[in-house]
Amino acid sequence: MAEPVSSTATGYALVAVTGLALYPGQDAAVILGAFAGAAVYVLSSDGLSLFKSAGFFLVSFFSGYLGAGSVAALLMRWPSVEISPGVCALLVAACAVNLLQGLNKKLADPVAAWRSLKGGGQ
Question: Which long-range contacts (CB under 8 A, 24 or more apart) does 25-29 make?
Fold first, then answer.
């Protein structure tokens, strides 16, 4: 049986995303792609508290929404690739928090990060 808090939060999130997608001037595919990517990230993460997963969801959603155009433009440089900004929003949202956590872990020790950039290894 689902928890009432998570079911209520999911319902409110779906209503908010639907409202954003209907707002004039917004690309509905990008909003829905960012929502789907954020949901994939949060649902695939184990052992997160409610507040941490809500925070990761918001960071993932907004990074997917804001990064979709840039990633789509980057991927359009190859002549054989035709990709929708909505798909790019899904990809960015699903990967953004992992990339930020990896950078944070790598830069926790700046000296080691500098050595690895120079090729010094451990």
Answer: 27/68, 27/85, 27/86, 29/84, 29/85, 29/86, 29/89
- What DSSP state is assigned to residue 16? H
CB 89 within 8 A of CB 52: no
At residue 114, the pLDDT reads 76
User: What beta strand segments (E) does 24-110 contain?
Assistant: none
pLDDT at 111: 78
How far is C-alpha 70 from the chain's CA centre? Answer: 14
Which tokens go with 52? 């941490």
Report d(CA 37, CA 31) in Å as an integer. Answer: 10
Q: Measuring CA to CA, which residue among 89, 29, 97, 86 is closest to residue 57?
A: 97
Amino acid at 69: G
For residue 6, what pLDDT band results from cuts at 50, 70 and 90? low
pTM: 0.73
Question: Per-residue pLDDT for 55 more than 80?
Answer: yes
